[in-house]
Task: structure prediction
Amino acid sequence: GQQLNQSPQSMFIQEGEDVSMNCTSSSIFNTWLWYKQDPGEGPVLLIALYKAGELTSNGRLTAQFGITRKDSFLNISASIPSDVGIYFCAGQLYGGSQGNLIFGKGTKLSVKP
Amino acid sequence: NAGVTQTPKFQVLKTGQSMTLQCAQDMNHNSMYWYRQDPGMGLRLIYYSASEGTTDKGEVPNGYNVSRLNKREFSLRLESAAPSQTSVYFCASSLSGGNGYTFGSGTRLTVV
Result:
């Protein structure tokens, strides 16, 4: 099936540092979404992107929809301990069926206090 | 203001037993989904329902059945549980397929 390559798989960072993660695919996407999952909870939507080139911020988070429509990145500025969790990218394929949001395998973020 | 509610939160089954995972949403969403989450595998779509009265297979449907009981409820049934179905199951809903999904808090299922 279609795949999203999300990297890195995990990160350990110092509090206050900036974080960057990305998702790439060989396929074109209509929509890119970024989710965060806290332990024992379901993923929560952080940012949604609907246009190629779109750059959207949500507080300390910034995400961009790649101009080729095959990639997206998420940046977190000045990380804090509550940023710990697993971050997932998800995309809806161009021409894909309505039910198919495809998820990356996640980036596990751990912050050293 | 509940969003997506899943029951139960935890379940242990013996191989061969059956059970139904329940999901309900109160946001008047049209589409509902069942995913499973396994370590290192991300979220994989089991079944989805684009609208009331329709269901379709996702990436990993084998061993599962679903029922879209009404607009609010979408259940997932394991007829004969296998250890390979040990996983965390998430239900999600969306207004339409292209919008962001709202997830429930998950059901942690162990099959022994």
